[in-house]
């Protein structure tokens, strides 16, 4: 039988009943003869509780000690899961990141996996044991514990699937798969049976928080087939892979991202290199810019507008203000009440009129478009935040529900 | 300056304010120029909380997974202490048992330290860093995490002091040292400035819960000087070492142990080997017997009385009852309402009349003695539990308060 890596998030194992429920899923798959490696996050709010505990003692702890502290969360949930599987009479062993052989860079708090020494895991699998691995962690060359940063447990799962040549890496979530739009907002949203890595990444960056881009990127690079599925029902989810074939729809989903803000730098001198100088200020401040719009110069001046993550807004404004003299702009116009609405689809590349259909839907819904950005598999528009849900619904209707 | 190992228990670091208070003590010693290795237990109720969490999932988890779970408690408190010291601007690093090089046997839950590879600790000390070590844990040869069982963090501290050749191993507790009797019960109790390892062990086994015998034994074997002191005041505590010289008092303390119960096996045949057969039944059941009293045979039968830990009483009775036919006794007389009162002192060996003084004190206090047991440095009597505090007070008065 085949080797499957299964990853469960913190909400799936937040309490004893969650752990026991997940143990049941694992037991079923084990009884079908699969070799299983299970990757776990920390239970529910454990990580937040630990961060709070640290903050009481030191508001600015070193990342090294933070990793030492936080890594206990995943270790504990791995041990508890192993106990739940023991109770079902199954052979099992829990492993910390170090014991699983996960060697990382020494960038505490955001380490990269450098290599995985699978000897211990392979030995345990050879004994037909279920291997439960603490996600999100590894050790640096000097033996220090590191954590992998955001989406870390997903990264652990995909990396293990890659080096162990697993046939599948399953990520269990509260959702039962990837949808054409947020099913809580858009009643007609449809679940996809397949999606490509690239589409998944575009959707993830747009706020579909199901799979972190870092893990999808790694899955794509290593050719690991992913499945996003729910731990609350026993049914297939959405497969993420290189090429999808089953569904011939042109776009795979509509997504909304409200973690965005718009800055307009007004009255810049209309001279060569001005855009470069503006964006260097931002990149020096480590601020990632998303959609960019530059007005046609008029009367010797021009405006440059762009979006940043809402959490970066203050820092972006501050860094521009400190360079006001050098950049020579007249004013900054800022709005945080905006949202990015996007359609994603690999099919878009070979189809024409997709953008037109999208704009038509927005026109029909009387949604004003502030900015537009396009890539090979994505079209994004910036709209007022209050219009965003209406925009998503209108676009979804146009592409998925009117088809008949 | 010298190297000091400091060990703080769970109650000293149970919350943020405790951790910050302890960090202050460490900072003071560091500023005096000492090299410091700090060993920590898990915070307050953490271990109990983890045990409870496990019990919800599996009432009989394997010891291996239990160790994986429990070891997170000490790792977290070590990291939090390091953060507190960082906040004071001190160079510090926290280490798990594995990172500290503590290699143990593979007896999960009660592992023995086999060797300590001090390379990492020495390297950190050479950089003038304070090294905070998670107590109670190590790793077995296969890389699995083990815990050291009862008194484990004390054992970690003494073992590190031994291999690092520390000048002193300080154990911080809620008490400010070792007393001639329980100061909460006996108002005249005096704090000792020094005590021998042997005296300390006798006192510890009698319920003075300050230092676990295992760590005192190891300290004696390795010649590590111990100090028991409080973390609530900055003052010297009691030094535990091989030979004490300062105080020439004959006994060092009076202690009470209520975790005891008496069993009398009545009407045994008065024949050779009968005592052996009775106690083999108990040792087969892994029950430790303490004081033993055998009556003179009379009319062809005799009685054997002994004490066991109160928690072993039911098991002791059950194992004897199953062998009633083979042993041929007439009845078991059982009492759990007893207490052992003991005086301990290395000076006893070279002084006469100590037992007489003790019995005189009990006689004056009208306390009935049920059983008597003596060793080179200890005299114990079994009394009714209701008389125990009165007995301790009377003995203490006789030896410590009447002197002046």
Tell me what the structure shows.
The structure is a homodimer of 404-residue chains. Chain A has 404 residues and is an alpha/beta fold. The first copy, chain A, has a domain at 3-173: Acetylglutamate kinase-like (Carbamate kinase), CATH 3.40.1160. In chain A, 35% of the residues lie in helices and 26% in strands. In chain A, strand 11 (226-230) and strand 12 (238-241) form a beta hairpin. The longest helix of chain A has 25 residues, at 63-87. The two termini of chain A are 42 Å apart. The interface between A and B is large, with 39 and 39 residues.
Tell me the layout of helices and strands.
Two copies of one chain form a homodimer.
Chain A: E1 3-8, H1 16-31, E2 35-40, H2 46-57, H3 63-87, E3 92-95, E4 102-104, E5 113-116, H4 119-126, E6 130-134, E7 137-139, E8 145-147, H5 152-163, E9 168-173, E10 194-196, H6 197-205, H7 213-222, E11 226-230, E12 238-241, E13 253-257, E14 261-269, H8 274-284, E15 289-294, E16 301-308, H9 313-322, H10 324-327, E17 331-335, E18 338-344, H11 354-364, E19 371-375, E20 378-384, H12 388-401
Parallel strand pairs in A: 1-2, 1-9, 2-6, 3-6, 9-11, 10-12
Antiparallel strand pairs in A: 4-5, 7-8, 11-12, 13-18, 14-16, 14-17, 15-16, 18-20, 19-20
Helix pairs in contact in A: 1-3, 2-3, 5-7, 6-7, 11-12
Count every beta strand of chain A, where a strand is a DSSP E run of 2 or more residues. 20
CATH topology group of the domain at 3-173 in chain A: Carbamate kinase
Q: CATH-wise, what's the superfamily of the domain at 3-173 in chain A?
A: Acetylglutamate kinase-like
The global form of chain A is globular
Report the largest inter-chain contact.
A-B, 39 and 39 residues
Compute the average pLDDT of chain A: 90
Spans of chain A of at least 5 consecutive residues whose pLDDT stays below 50 are: none
Taking all Cα atoms into account, the compactness measure Rg of chain A is: 24 Å
The top level CATH class name of the domain at 3-173 in chain A:
Alpha Beta
Number of helices of chain A: 12
Fraction of residues in β-strands of chain A: 25-35%
- Kindly state the percentage of residues in helix of chain A: 25-40%
Quick one: biggest sheet of chain A? 8 strands, mixed
């Amino acid at each position: 039988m085949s080797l499957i890596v299964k990853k469960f998030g913190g909400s799936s194992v937040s309490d004893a009943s969650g752990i026991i429920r997940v143990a049941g899923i694992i037991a079923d798959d084990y009884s079908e003869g699969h070799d299983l490696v299970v990757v776990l996050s920390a239970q529910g709010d454990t990580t937040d509780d630990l961060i709070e505990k640290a903050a009481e003692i030191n508001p600015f702890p070193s990342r090294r000690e933070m990793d030492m502290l936080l890594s206990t969360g995943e270790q504990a949930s791995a041990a508890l899961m192993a106990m739940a599987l023991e109770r079902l009479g199954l052979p099992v062993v829990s492993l910390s990141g170090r014991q699983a052989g996960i060697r990382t860079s020494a960038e505490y708090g955001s380490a990269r996996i450098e290599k995985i020494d699978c000897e211990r895991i392979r030995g345990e699998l050879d004994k037909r044991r279920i291997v439960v691995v603490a996600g999100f962690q590894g050790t640096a060359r000097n033996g220090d514990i590191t954590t992998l940063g955001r989406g870390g447990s997903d990264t652990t799962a995909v990396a293990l699937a890659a080096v162990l040549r697993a046939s599948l890496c399953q990520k269990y979530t509260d959702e039962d798969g990837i949808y054409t739009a947020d099913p809580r907002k858009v009643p007609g949203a449809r679940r996809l049976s397949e999606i490509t890595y690239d589409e998944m990444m575009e959707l993830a960056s747009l706020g579909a928080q199901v799979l972190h881009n870092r893990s999808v990127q790694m899955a794509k690079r290593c050719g690991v087939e992913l499945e996003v599925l729910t731990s609350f029902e026993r049914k297939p989810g959405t497969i993420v892979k290189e090429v999808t074939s089953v569904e011939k729809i042109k776009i795979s989903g509509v997504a909304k991202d409200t973690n965005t803000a718009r800055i307009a730098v007004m009255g810049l001198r209309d001279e060569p290199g001005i855009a470069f100088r503006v964006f260097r200020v931002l990149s020096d401040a480590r601020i990632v810019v998303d959609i960019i719009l530059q007005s046609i110069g008029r009367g010797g001046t021009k405006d440059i507008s762009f979006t940043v993550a809402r959490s970066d807004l203050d820092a972006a404004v501050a860094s521009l203000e400190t360079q006001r003299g050098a950049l020579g702009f007249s004013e900054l116009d800022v709005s945080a009440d905006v949202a990015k609405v996007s359609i994603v689809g690999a099919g878009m590349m070979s189809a024409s009129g997709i953008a037109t259909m999208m704009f038509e839907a927005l026109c029909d819904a009387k949604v004003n478009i502030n900015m537009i950005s396009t890539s090979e598999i994505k079209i994004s528009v910036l709209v007022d935040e209050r219009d965003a849900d209406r925009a998503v619904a209108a676009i979804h209707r146009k592409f998925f529900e009117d088809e008949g």
